[in-house]
Amino acid sequence: MRRLSDREASSSLTEDELVARIAEALAAPPRALRVGIGDDAAAWKTHPHHLSLLTTDMLVDGVHFRRAQTTPQALGRKALAENLSDIAAMGGTPAVAVVALGLTADVDDDWIRGFYRGMAALANSASCAIAGGDIVRAPALTIALTVAGEVRASRMRTRANAKANDVAAITAPLGRAAAGLALIDAAKPLHLDPAIAASLQQAYFEPRARLREGRYFGSRRAVHALMDLSDGLSTDGARMARASHLDLVLDAGALTPGDDVVAVAQQRELDAVDLVLNGGDDYELLAAIDARAYKHVADGYRKRFGRPLIAIGRFVSGDGSVWIERSGKREAVTSSGYDHLRRLR
Description:
- The chain is an alpha+beta fold.
- Helices cover 35% and strands 25% of the residues.
- The protein folds into two domains: 141 residues, CATH 3.30.1330.10; 178 residues, PurM-like C-terminal domain (Phosphoribosyl-aminoimidazole Synthetase, Chain A, domain 2, Alpha-Beta Complex), CATH 3.90.650.
- The radius of gyration is 21 Å and the shape is globular.
């Protein structure tokens, strides 16, 4: 981790003491990490026959999360999970991560250590080393992560190679994270079973990176394209369609919202289907799979992961549009998921 020079950390500790506390919270790194926290740069051993992957994300309090409504442990997990999801979407394996924090004056030592403990728990389970980073003062709590990973060239998948007639499939139902956020933002408590409410909030606060699923898809030649769904199916589905020079036709029946999503939508006077199509924060994977081999891939998926792969539509010739089909009739789907720049206009 870099020294902070003359910049102050939001802590009663000195910079060196804070770095030492962070290193303690992270525990022992994987063997591949040769030089980690405490030096000028990280060094790790890469596989000679793999391609390197690199991804980064930034999270800002009040935009991507609500510090007052989440624990530092959950936020640490979420910040890392979002980046690991990008590695999963390439069929890859994470190796190292660096963490840059912009801290406000009211962030104390306990919060920082809790944040890193939460991140470390996920990093350890994913065999990803937290290799360093940077800490500065900031007007709003800001988290920027960069994760490096690797993938065998033959197993790398991108969003650009879907084929006409491929089945579009997802790793789990959508809309639960958006319903969880709607529940969190409700002005008054909703009438929900406490277990359901807790599960929906967890879907938003602690998304799962589908690393094993991504590697499974990468090992199947019938899987032509892959990406993660972070900004909503309408937006991310259109991105895959455009990159592959195709249209995506969604099956309305396959995207029926779950009862838990419907319950939140009704009490918040929201459209449950809109939460599924546009809600975002799902971090499930969208795969384009050869129709002739779909059953074989889906059977293998169920056997390996204990749950079904969900076919939600198909790719057809087109120019990057997304459609939803009901009773044989198609309606255009507007990309209404999360877009940072659109919100700045």
